[in-house]
């Protein structure tokens, strides 16, 4: 009976997601359609219409690309032993360039010894790119984002703490809902994808947030002992 419930819940989830995708893609499609018609009937130069059509196409591309992350085959690639620390270093190096443009500093506080988990490197990078990007988006300009790694016997905990606008409890409730966004050009898919990836890695994710003060996302992943060939 329990399994049946789970199956039907999943179907509802898939239906909701499909409805969301249809809606999100229909808007730019309607707009592209409209501007194409205008261009057909207009004798004047239509340069400006090209810009709009191009940006609407980019929007569809962004949504589709984010969704592709979700549909990538899971499971069989997930079980590779990985040291999480160099993965975090790489992501931070990548994001520091964007952060510097907003005068935001990303600081990293990690243990000296390797921290081993089982996972798929690109999916894990995606998680920390999403969290760092959200942290940066939440900060006007200047400030610090802390990436902290702590380990227990069983878990590696990675937290990403920003000094941004924070979230209300209503916002926190809605996190992970497909297409929930408060940003003008957001997709509202980042957190859903992040939760999905962490769940598939046997981990969990926690959120603490105070409006006007900042947000901390903590990712917990099962820790493994150092692999023999490492
Ligand atoms: P997007 O970034 O495209 O909006 P996400 O799923 O990544 O999509 O985030 C959904 C919403 O959650 C954001 O629009 C924002 O309102 C809120 N959010 C996520 N991370 C943070 C954060 N670090 N600080 C404040 N709000 C956040």
Automatic annotation (TrEMBL):
Transmembrane segments: none annotated. Residues 20-225 form the Histidine kinase domain. This is histidine kinase. It comes from Paenibacillus dendrobii. The chain holds residues 264 to 493 of 493 of the full protein.
